[in-house]
Amino acid sequence: MFFDSLDQIPRLASQFGCTVFVIPNVSKIPVKNALNVYPGEIKSGIVIDQIKDVLSHVDTKQSTEQFIIIHEADKMNLNAANAFLKNLEEPKANYHFILQTENPSALLPTILSRAEVYVLKTPHPLESPVAADDKIKAIAKKLIVATPKDYILIMNEVTKIKDGTREYALSVLSAAIEISYKSYFKTKNQAFLTKLPKFLKAYENIAANGHIKLHLVADML
């Protein structure tokens, strides 16, 4: 969904447990008395200790609304992102997480599936190219337009990879998610959103249990 100005962020964020705002990194988020998390050095990004420190505050009961802002949330490393995801699976009352990013597709799809995503109309931060090689993008595009009878063929193409099959399948799904988001935001064609829940579900299940063949077909039906 789109929104018009940064001033709308407090109202939008207060409606959900977790909201992703696609806005420039330099944006000042007008939420008062929020707990802020910033990335450290470029190599380390946002690490698990930072997330654990934030979540220690969430363990306390609150009778008033509390906001936690994670700036450049796409820079959470995998351990930090997984720790944050666990919190979303067990949401606490009166806590609202705001994830700021210029690159929502770099967030874990499992985080995106549990968050509301808002994109600032201007400037538009979704013009960067899809972060995947040409072969992965080609398979992802097939997946986006595929009919149910095509899923087995695409699954066979993905599982031809002998080493790192799970990672390859996740890369294809991640690219499909990114392409779908960017295509929708560029064209406003709702058709690009129809398969997103299925992509997110397949990604989450493959990441959890590695059953690639099952989820690349069953979760897409």
Residues in β-strands, percent: 5-15%
Query: What is the CATH first-level class name of the largest domain?
Result: Alpha Beta
Radius of gyration, Cα only, in angstroms? 18 Å
How many strands? 6
Q: Which strands sit side by side, in order, in the main sheet?
A: 1-6-2-5-4-3
How many helical elements? Answer: 9
Structural class based on helices, strands and sheet pairing: alpha/beta
Number of domains: 2
**What about the largest sheet?**
6 strands, parallel
Return the CATH topology of the largest domain.
Rossmann fold
Q: Give the overall silhouette.
A: globular
Helix content: 40-55%
> Which CATH architecture of the largest domain?
3-Layer(aba) Sandwich
Low-confidence stretches: none
Alpha-carbon distance between the two ends: 25 Å
Mean pLDDT, nearest integer?
88
CATH superfamily of the largest domain: P-loop containing nucleotide triphosphate hydrolases
Q: Give the SSE order as H and E letters.
A: EHEEHEHEHEHHHHH
Topology (elements, then pairings):
Layout: E1 2-3, H1 9-13, E2 18-22, E3 35-37, H2 48-58, E4 66-70, H3 78-89, E5 95-101, H4 109-112, E6 116-120, H5 134-145, H6 151-158, H7 165-187, H8 196-209, H9 212-217
Parallel strand pairs: 1-6, 2-5, 2-6, 3-4, 4-5
Helix pairs in contact: 2-3, 5-7, 7-8
